[in-house]
Inverse folding.
């Protein structure tokens, strides 16, 4: 038997794999998984050739719209989804960096209005590979290294 | 443009920019004293900026409009802790248009989204100041007779100066050549150079004033601010390196005009003021016509 942590199989639902271990909780926050009552298991600090250390989430009876799942591209650009029905993988999906990011990220500019008043942040993704976000309000760029999830 | 806020120069297309300049020319020729009769313009200056405020208020009053507002936040309810959200929502009940200046970046965009009436950005921190850009364009067009194919020199603080960034963006629609003269620490940021590369616009960078200025059609001077330097000695040296003096203008082109958003510190020596190539005080007057044009266009009166 391979030496791996067993994260139990699910009957119906979604498996999100290849999440960088350090960003597991950000993914949970972005998808509001901390606010739903579905059965859920997750494993973290699992070995991964690609990521060094990865995390995986399995959620029962939960299926995501593309628009919803693409939000995690900010913190888990290599994430892969398996859609499970009757213990079978019926569909595989990868995430795609969206054109606009609404209400997830924080603007890096300390003088930006979004850091002073109750304003939903809005960004245009100006570079999908490096994930550079241009703030709709102050027009400054927030890059991957300075990305903070709200 | 009707009923649309003006927050950033990129909110206007080339056609819309040209339309504003045409209107400004019309206002310069004909005062239109009653155009804004019965209209109320709110002038909300959350930080003081006397020049910009007076220019806007003069523009409104010359057109017969009324003004309500405040000239710095100590005389407004924001000192009582009111949010920008509440101030804007309240004021938009009283006015047909809001002119606002605010130290926080993005505040004007936010205000334009929650306000019931159009918002004109009169400066939001280091971000945008589109009416300054439009008056700069008007000054260039008026003195050169055109906007196309000009050699534009930008001098001084090119790193932090928002006016030069917006001017660069706007002028890029008119096939210019740019020359940048600045201290190495205050050079034009990479993102703007990339922008020019993409558009195929030529630019040259210099660290000194040289004979190269004999090619200039427009020299746009900006002030170098002390806060930009951690070393006060370096500031003093830099400040004195980029001073334009009258004798330096000897071999420059006949049509050259020197622009400056004002206030200046010492970057243009007073000896230049009487040179016919000095244009910065007229430039300020052009601000009134341009703001008349902007306000009337947004209110749909022109
Ligand atoms: Zn911002």
């Amino acid at each position: 038997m391979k030496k791996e942590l067993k994260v139990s199989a699910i009957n119906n639902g979604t498996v999100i794999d290849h999440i960088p271990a350090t960003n597991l909780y950000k993914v949970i926050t972005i998808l509001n998984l901390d606010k739903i009552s579905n059965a859920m298991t997750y494993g973290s600090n699992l070995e991964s050739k690609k990521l060094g250390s990865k995390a995986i989430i399995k959620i029962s009876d939960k299926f995501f719209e593309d628009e919803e799942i693409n939000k995690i591209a900010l913190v888990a650009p290599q994430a892969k989804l398996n859609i499970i029905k009757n213990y079978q993988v019926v569909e595989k999906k990868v995430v795609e960096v969206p054109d606009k990011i609404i209400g997830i990220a924080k603007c890096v500019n300390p003088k930006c209005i979004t850091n002073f008043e109750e304003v939903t942040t809005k960004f245009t993704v100006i570079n999908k590979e490096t994930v550079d976000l241009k703030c709709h309000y102050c027009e400054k760029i927030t890059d991957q290294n300075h990305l903070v999830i709200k | 443009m009707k009923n649309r806020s003006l927050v950033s120069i990129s909110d206007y297309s080339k056609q819309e920019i040209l339309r504003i300049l045409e209107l400004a020319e019309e206002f310069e020729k004909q005062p239109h004293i009653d155009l804004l009769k019965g209209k109320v313009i709110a002038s909300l200056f959350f930080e003081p900026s006397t020049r910009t405020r007076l220019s806007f208020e003069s523009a409104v009053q010359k057109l017969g409009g009324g003004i309500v507002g405040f000239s710095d936040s100590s005389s407004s309810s924001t000192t009582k802790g009111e949010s920008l959200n509440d101030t804007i929502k309240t004021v938009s009940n009283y006015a047909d248009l809001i002119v606002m200046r605010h130290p926080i970046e993005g505040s004007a965009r936010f205000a334009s989204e929650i306000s019931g009436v159009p918002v004109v950005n009169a400066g939001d921190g280091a971000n945008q100041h589109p009416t300054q850009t439009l008056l700069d364009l008007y000054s260039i067009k008026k003195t050169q007779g055109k906007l196309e194919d000009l050699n534009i020199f930008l001098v001084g603080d090119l790193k932090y100066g928002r006016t030069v960034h917006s001017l660069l963006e706007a002028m890029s629609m008119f096939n210019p050549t740019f020359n940048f003269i600045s201290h190495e620490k205050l050079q034009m940021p990479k993102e703007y150079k990339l922008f020019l590369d993409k558009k195929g616009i030529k630019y040259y960078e210099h660290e000194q004033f040289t004979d190269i200025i004999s090619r200039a059609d427009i020299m746009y001077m900006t002030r170098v601010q002390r806060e930009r330097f951690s070393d006060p000695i370096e500031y003093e040296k830099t400040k004195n390196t980029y001073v334009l003096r009258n004798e330096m203008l000897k071999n420059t082109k006949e049509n050259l005009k020197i622009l400056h958003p004002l206030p200046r510190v010492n970057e243009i020596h007073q000896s230049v003021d009487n040179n016919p190539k000095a244009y910065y005080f007229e430039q300020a007057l052009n601000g009134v016509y341009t703001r008349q044009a902007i306000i009337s266009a947004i209110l749909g009166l022109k």
